[in-house]
């Protein structure tokens, strides 16, 4: 069914307006990152544009160290979620055991428990294990992911059971079937889950704030908060410069993930 030209024009105009409204805060932050604090506070047009705010952002706190910590933590959490979620989804789909469906529903029910409700127990466990100010303390609590297991389970259920039976006749074990058949079929869902897990981990603030006490393992979100002070006037140009630097990796990941996802969907449609 073809959409009339008039409707199409109105549709694209609304999309452009909506996109501008959503992206406006990012554009404003980007513009403010090149302005002096005087221009920002007076609300006037910038008298000059310079990179001084970016230089000062790198000088006021160890931004590169924080970026590296955030990258390591996000990648480890993403890989942990992909591995555990895919293995759990495989077990819930292809392995027959008593109480499988009941266990799955109990597992999915944990999605209704907010993360804030489990912070105190998780913190006590991390403290007792001696994982304060360590990468395991920042990553391991997020490996088990009910949403990821649910997403991949729904995708794995599309694989015919006859294919699994044929692989058993051919002498293929569960792990080989999981690696050579299941994971390639589910690569689009794995990519979606990976991007979601990375972005969620990159933007974490509360958990790193609780489990870190020094700059060696602190993430970039904590660093951005350190740029703000209550004792004196905030330098919003430097703060916006730091925010733009933090946003750049997530935008790159989103653009790359979107192109890969579209490519995967096209290949799947052709097959």
UniProtKB/TrEMBL annotation:
It is a multi-pass membrane protein. The keyword Flavoprotein does not apply. Keywords: Cell membrane, Membrane, Transmembrane, Transmembrane helix, Transport. It is found in: Cell membrane. InterPro entries: MetI-like (IPR000515), MetI-like_sf (IPR035906). Belongs to the binding-protein-dependent transport system permease family. This is Glycerol-3-phosphate ABC transporter permease. It comes from Oceanobacillus indicireducens.
């Amino acid at each position: 069914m073809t959409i009339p030209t008039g409707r199409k024009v109105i549709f694209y105009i609304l999309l452009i307006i909506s996109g501008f409204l959503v992206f406006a805060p990012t554009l404003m932050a980007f513009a403010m990152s090149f302005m002096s604090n005087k221009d920002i506070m007076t609300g006037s047009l910038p008298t000059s544009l310079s990179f001084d705010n970016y230089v000062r952002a790198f000088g006021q706190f160890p931004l590169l160290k924080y970026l590296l910590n955030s990258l390591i933590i996000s990648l480890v959490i993403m890989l942990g979620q992909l591995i555990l979620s895919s293995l759990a989804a495989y077990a819930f789909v292809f392995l027959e055991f008593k109480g499988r469906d009941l266990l799955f529903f109990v597992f999915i029910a944990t999605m209704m428990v907010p993360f804030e409700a489990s912070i105190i127990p998780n913190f006590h466990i991390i403290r007792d294990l001696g994982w304060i100010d360590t990468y395991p303390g920042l990553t391991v609590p997020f490996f088990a992911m009910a949403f990821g297991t649910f997403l991949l389970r729904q995708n794995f259920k599309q694989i015919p059971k006859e294919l699994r039976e044929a692989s058993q006749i051919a002498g293929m074990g569960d792990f080989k079937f999981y690696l050579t058949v299941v994971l390639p079929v589910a690569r689009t869902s794995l990519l979606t889950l990976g991007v979601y897990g990375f972005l969620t981990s990159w933007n974490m603030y509360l958990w790193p704030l609780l489990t870190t006490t020094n700059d060696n393992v602190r993430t970039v979100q904590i660093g951005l908060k350190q740029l703000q002070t209550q004792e004196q006037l905030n330098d919003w140009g430097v703060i916006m410069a730091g925010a733009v630097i933090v946003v750049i990796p997530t935008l790159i990941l989103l653009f790359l993930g979107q192109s890969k996802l579209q490519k995967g969907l096209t290949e799947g449609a052709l097959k």
